[in-house]
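As promised in the previous annual report, we have extended the structural survey to additional targets. Below is the entry for Probable butyrate kinase.
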Amino acid sequence: MSYKLLIINPGSTSTKIGVYEDEKELFEETLRHSTEEIAKYDSIYAQRGFRKEVILNVLKEKNFDIKTLDAVVGRGGMLKPIPGGTYAVTEELLEDLKVGVQGQHASNLGGILSNEIAKEIGVPAFIVDPVVVDELEDIARYSGVPELPRKSKFHALNQKAVAKRYGKESGKGYENLNLIVVHMGGGVSVGAHNHGRVVDVNNALDGEGAFSPERAGTVPAGDLVKLCFSGKYTEKEVYSKLVGNGGLNAYANTNDMRDVLKMIDEGSEEAKELFSAFIYQVGKDIGAMATVLEGKVDQIVLTGGIAYSPVVTEAIKKRAGWIAGITIYPGEDELLALAQGAIRVLSGEEEAKVY
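The corresponding structure token record, generated without further manual editing, is:
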């Protein structure tokens, strides 16, 4: 049996949608929203009617009958920490997306919009592997400061999708493998996947771990404290140094690794050293996760936009390839990953989880 799905992935100034028949994309659209349109609403939740209308209008323009859908799937938002999986949208889940229990973010609208459209046509609504997926071992939460436990906030949707893909393609199954998954995009997350659970991972949302195109990574704590109380910066300005303006942005004034590689080609020694430092830090994080898995690593998986670069992937192989074999799944196909999560439930491969 085939399943037809509408996928909704809201961003701060866009809403990406796709219609899938099983894993085949029928069409995809990125619906752009101007700053003026978004500014009309005093909260993210208040945008739901506007965004829903835009989605339904595009589907109508494409002559797509929403009554042919078997389910609607939304990007998960800033919920309470939860194990990975596909979740049925429930009233409790909707309420926590509305209030944003871990923060206000456009992705909170994913479950809300999917539910509103699904209710109209009498089909189920789901979310899949939101950024707050938390499967950490208790010992991984220790930071050294009881008030500051380590948190699991990372590229859960893509990490889980590529890990399951490798499990399927290897014929071994995700639940039977120990994997280290490295997502390299605007942020970098390195996760230790132990037989289907991400037992340790850096908090990529707040910039922990290796530095990345837009995030500072783990910085010297004492110096950070002094910076915060120097009187030179506001809280917002300090945070932007860590998330948004950190990493490549801070050193090379670009958030694009391709620009750094171009600078190297043009003879920049500074860019060459910056690139080497990036590979060095990612390699260190891979090594750390190998110790989490007690050296029993079946495969390292590289993913995210930066994984398109053979220069990057070859450099990582040179530094960390001795730990395990390396498989590369470049990019981040979020719409497909959301579709696959729903298909696993609709086909009976998995049960929908309840929030």
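The chain has two domains: 4-135+334-347, 162-328. The mean pLDDT is 96. These points will be discussed at the next consortium meeting with the crystallography subgroup.
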